Every structure is written in C-alpha cells, then in structure tokens.
Amino acid sequence: MSNAIFNDGEDHLFPCFSRADISFTRGEGAWLFGADGRRYLDFATGIAVTGLGHSHPELMNILASQAQMLWHVSNAVRIPQQEELARLLCEKTFADRVFFNNSGAEAIETAIKTARRYHFVAGATERYRIVTFEGGFHGRTLATIAAGGRKKYLEGFGPPMAGFDIVPFGDLNALAAACTAETAAVLLEPIQGESGVRMMSIDELKAVRHICDRQGVLLILDEVQTGVGRTGRLFAYQGAGAAPDILAAAKGLGNGIPVAACLATEKAAAGMTQGTHGSTFGGNPLSMAVAQKVIEVISDEHFLGEVRRKSDLLRTGLEALVADYPGAFTEVRGDGLLLGVKCASAVETAVSAALGHGLLTVAAGDNVLRILPPLIVSDEDIAFGLERLRRIAQALLSTIPGHGASSYVRTFLF
Fold this sequence. Notes:
Layout: H1 3-10, E1 24-28, E2 31-34, E3 39-42, H2 45-48, H3 57-67, H4 80-92, E4 97-101, H5 104-121, E5 129-133, H6 142-148, H7 151-154, E6 164-167, H8 172-178, E7 183-188, E8 191-192, E9 198-199, H9 202-215, E10 218-222, E11 246-249, E12 260-264, H10 285-298, H11 301-324, E13 329-335, E14 338-343, H12 347-356, E15 359-360, E16 362-364, E17 368-371, H13 379-398, H14 407-412
Parallel strand pairs: 3-15, 5-6, 5-7, 7-10, 10-11
Antiparallel strand pairs: 1-2, 2-3, 4-12, 8-9, 11-12, 13-14, 14-17, 16-17
C-alpha cells in the first residue's frame, strides 16, 4: 500500500489520534509484522488488550467455531454463552452478578449506575455522588471524563457532568472527608496506567475499603487495564485482599474482541432490575465464547504464576537499565506486566526511538514509558526487549549535550 493511498484513506477519519506512520499485516505470539517488511516486538499489546498475544491457537479455534454457528442475538432472549461466562467470572471473583458491555467506558458507566441505583432502591435518593482520585482515567464518555476530571479531556464539551468529587491521588484523609451523606461510591484504579503507572499500595487499598465500609458507600474498582491477569492475579484486588463491591473489566477480557463486564455483589446489584439498563451488542455469543476461553486460560494458577515470574524477570532488567543509564531512565513503576520507566527526557522521544528499534511501547503521563508485554511473552522475548531498551537508552543519551553517541549506538541504530 503506497503512502499516497494510505494518507488518502486517513483523510476520511476523524483526526482524533496521533498515529505512527506504520501498519501491521499480521501477528504471532508477542510479535507483529509490519507492512514495511519488518517485525516488531509488541510491548504495547493494543494498550493492555492482547494478553494472550496474537493468533493464539485456542482463541482462533473458538472464534472460528462460534463464528460458524451464531454471532449475535439480542438480550431479549437467553444467551447460554453469556450465562456460562458470568458463572465463571463469579466463581473466580468476589462477584455474584455480571452485566456485559462492549468497552471499558461502558463498563464504568454501568458501575456508576449500579452504585447510584443501589442507594436509590434503599431509599437514600440523596446518595448519588462518586468520589474519584486525581489522575484517574475511566473512559471518554461524558460521564467518565467527568469522573476523571482532567482538563484536556473535558475541554470543549460543555459543563462537566455533575456528581463527581475528585481528591488528590493517595490522600486518604481527603477521601474520608469527601465521603458525605450524598456519596454513593468511591471509584479508583489500583494502578493509574494513563497517568504514569501510579500504584496504590496494598495498605492504601485496604484503608480505602475501610473508609467505604465506615461511611456506608460502595467501592468500585476500575480494573479495565489491571484486570485479566495483567498484574499476575486474575484481578489486581486479589493481591491486596480488599475486594470491591463493583468492578469494571475490559481490554484483556476479549484479547482484541470488543467485550467488557461490570461485576458486582448481589447486594450492590440489587437496584439493577428489569429495564434499568441495556445493551444491543453487549454479551453477544461471539464475544462471550472468546472471553470465556480467555478467562479459562488466564485464570489457571500455573499460568498466573508464570506471569508473576516473568514480571520479576522483566522488572529486574528494567531496574538494571535505570541503574546503568540514569541519564535516560530514572525509575521503574508498576506491578506484574503493567510496568513503566520514567524518562529523563520527553517520553514521546523514547516511544519513537523504541519503534525505530522494532519495539512497540506506550506513552503515559508523568513522562513514563509504559511496558505492556503479552502475558505469554517468553524469557527470550523479554531479553530481546531489554536489549532493545538498552539501545534506546544509548540513543537518548546521544541527544543530550555531554553524552556523545558511542560506537555501540552508531553500529546498532537502524
């Protein structure tokens, strides 16, 4: 495909994305193959989506099998695949009830509505406000950008939707003070991926749970990015021992097939009765069949143990990288295979350099380079990625006055 044709087609798209001038023709495991004839190690995974990598044989088989039988029926009839996945998710988590959506933002919207309806049916109609943390990213709908409260996402869309109170990240005193007689729930990400891979500690998550219980509000966890094995647990909360009342999952749930879920306890879901919510495509047989296989594979304890082992391997390598190249990278953050390295210079430069070296990464806030390998990444792939990051560090240092490019850089830069 020529650039002229490619650019002509791009002219018909909303210019909402800053896209690299590259496209891919196929993927296999942790690797993507570009239209330029090169192969790339995928340490981006579509922003924490393709946890089982590309062309996973079990997923390909289940997709082909279901596609030959039934793609879609409406939620006006029973959908056995939906019931099976809901049962599996409830068996593997705190939840008793599940509602299926198409995207993370929709799952968060469902979570917000569930929390508000819970208090409504309990007679506390004044309880509708949601407390969130500064730096949170919960989606791009009008409600979810209001929940995040970030100016760059709110600008130009009119007055922000009412009902959200935002407190500084990690400030538990501010959280407790913000929970009033009008508060329905607290909404947070265990790890803020978009804002720079910022984590809440286990003790902080437990303290948030305690505050919610004391104040009579529900706890909603946004595990759109941290869920489905990304932290070495099926969901991140399971490593903290602080179960939520409601949880939103998406991204890795379908390994690229659009599917999301809102999980809740029986008590929290009590208000979501017939007619209170709906979805045309949410929970269709095709997406349910794929997502069920994803959960079956990833929830296996041996598989999750391997994710934790590989996380330790990758993190050790990243920490060595920071120690060896403090002029390029200054800190390692995150958990599991949701990791980040803080850059000493513009993160966009690091992302571009990585792409030039055949490595896909993701920019995050606070000048952090997000490292999101597939959960099936091999030790050899990790070694390759770390070696490429060393080249990138050398390349970044070569642009800083006083750090001349070494012969190593001149030899290996593409």
